[in-house]
Structures are given as C-alpha cells and as structure tokens.
Amino acid sequence: MSDTSAPTPSPSSTIDFRKACSWRAVLAPYARPRLGRSLLDVGTSLVPYLGLMVGMYLLLGVSDWLVVAVSVPAAGFLVRTYIVFHDCAHGSFLPWRKANEWLGVMCGLLVFTPFQRWRHQHAVHHASSGDLDRRGVGDLLTLTVAEYEALRRHRRLGYRLVRNPMVMFGLGPTWAMILAPRFVSRSERLRIRRSVWRTNLALAAVIGLLCWLLGWESFVLVEMPSALLAGSVGVWLFYVQHQFEDAYWQSSDSWSYDEAALKGSSYLRLPKVLQFFTGNIGLHHVHHLSTRIPNYNLQPAHDAYPVFQQVPSLSLWDGMRCVKLKLWDEERGRLVTFRQARAGRLQTGPTSPVGAPASTP
Question: What pTM does this model have?
C-alpha cells in the first residue's frame, strides 16, 4: 500500500453489523496512519497558517484592513491545524506515539491549548458522550428539562447565558481558547499540571518576544482575529456534533458506546471546501466509533459501509438551526428549545429532576 492510497476493506456485504464483535475491528483497516498523507496534512495546515501569519506581519505597514482580510483564510488553516492537534491527541496522526505527542505539543502552542490536559479531557468526552450520568468533562453542559426547572432563577439565567449564541460563539472562544486553558486545579494529576505550566511559559515567552519586537498592538491585530474566528468555528462544530434534535442521551445503565456514536454523533455534510478546512470532522459518527482513524481516512470509511447512510445527517443550514436547541426532554427523547420545554410543561404539569449533572452553571 502506498502512502497516499486509501485502505481497501473487505466488501461491506460480507459484514453483519448486528453480529460484529467490535466496530473498531470492523474499521481497523482505516485506523492506520500513513506518513506521506499525514505530512501532506501538515503541509496544508500548519505551513500555510504560519506563512499567512508572517504575511500579515509584513502587511502591517501597508493596510490594517488587508491584514484583517487575510485573517479569514488564516482562521481556516488554524481550524485545520486544530484537527492535526486533535488527531495527535488520539495517537492517530503519525505511526509513532512520541511523534504524535511532540507534534501535538507544537500544535497546542498555535491553538493556545495544553496538549496533555486536553487529551485527557477529550478522552473522557469520548468515553461518556451521551451518558446523562457522566456530563461535565470535555463537553458542553446540557441540562434536562426537569433539571432546568428545578434550578433557582439566577442559575436558570446563568444557563441561558451560557447557551446564548452571542455568548457561546462570541465570548466562548475567548474563554475556551485563551483564558480557561491557563488555569489548572491542584487536584489534577502532576503531568497534567506540568502540561499547563509548560504551555503557559512557552506562550508567555513567544508572545512576549513578539510584542517586544513588533509591539503589542501589532500582535493583537495579527493574531487575535484569526484565533477568535477559528475558535468560533470550532465551538460551533463541537456543538452541532452532539447537539441536534434527535441526539442520543441515556442514563448509564442503558448507555451504549456504539449507539452513542451512531445515534448521538452527527454526520455534518459540508461543502467540499469547508470539509477540507474542518479536516473531515463532520464525519463524527465514524470518528466516535474508532478514534484511531486519522482525519483523511474518515470519508473512505464512511463511504465503504452503507449502514453509515442511516446515521443522523445535518446540512450546513441544519447545523445553524440546531443552535436554538437548549434542553434534553427525557419524556420525548429529543433536544428542545426553551419555548418547547415550556409548552410541554404546561401540557403535562411540572416534573421532578431525575438526577443532577456533574456541574450546573
């Protein structure tokens, strides 16, 4: 097999998915990183992003508006860089564990994120996605209708603010990318705390040097627009991957990893250019079934098995509309808006909370 060729699985007609002992075994032919293809990903993500950063610094004396304009494609390549970072965290991007870690740490500096801690939190997300009893780590807090109604007024307001699109996609990236990763609890494992400290020191050194050489105004004008735009796109992508009307939420005793992947992870059908910049992450059902599949093998894996045509599918417009969904209605088994939750309460009367999530706003 050449570096650039896609794996060839056994014919899909020979596989009975109801009897398959493991989805990971079924998808194993795609869970093999190819060095040449991975290097191509680096050449179409980190390299153009860093090149555009240099170009924007050179444009500072020409036109500030031109700098801002160039920040738009730079944001696209930063999102793509984040996908490389993401694959490294899963150990799926390069054939060697240490190489994944080193590249992940480097990408982490570009996306302002400590690699070790994000890898741990993201692993928890994959192990608990769709589990009502294990919410709160590596995901967006989602309350049930009953839990929301049981909150005091100020906590309801806090939840509404967090789920407000202006906050979630406007202020959210600043908090999620710039501020929150700078802090770590003493209760965290030592290696995770060290990851945060080392990332903070490295960022302080790099940012301090750039501000000293070029001025802090130039640094903010060049770095922040692309970082915040990429952050907004990233938050939206993470949102629609698990926050759609017919999503999957179950209590731990009924929860299934495979069902959570197939029913609770969306297939976001994006135009090809957007699929390129988002590194195929819209094929999220395949990714959740087997995290060791590198991003460039997600589409071939999806196309190989007709069963994947039955997973929840969202268009770009569908993804935009999902933003209005706020609460999980356990009785109806779907995500609802605040208005729908209120209408349901008026019809059925008040309900009792079924168990508090890991944290509440």
Answer: 0.87
Mean pLDDT for 26-45 is 95
Distance CA(128)–CA(248), nearest Å, equals 12
CA-wise closest residue to 289 among 79, 129, 94: 129
| The amino acid at 337 | T
Q: Residues 6 or more apart from 140 whose CB is under 8 A from it?
A: 238, 239, 242, 243
pLDDT attached to residue 148: 94
- 52-80 average pLDDT score: 95
Angle between helices 216-240 and 190-214 (to 10 degrees): 140
DSSP state of 325: -
> In sequence order, what are the residues at sequence separation of 6 or more whose Cβ sits closer than 8 angstroms to the Cβ of residue 74?
49, 52, 53, 56, 226
What number of CA atoms fall less than 13 Å from residue 96's CA on the CB side? 5
From CA 2, how far away is CA 293, in angstroms rounded? Answer: 17
CA dist 89 and 319 (Å) reads 26
Q: How many CA atoms lie within 13 A of 301 on its CB side?
A: 29
The residue among 72, 79, 31, 42 whose CA lies nearest residue 237 is 79
Rounded to whole angstroms, how far apart are CA atoms 332 and 259? 18
Do the beta carbons of residue 285 and residue 267 sit within 8 Å? yes
> 103-160 pLDDT, tens per residue?
999 999 999 999 999 999 999 999 999 999 988 777 788 999 999 999 999 999 999 9
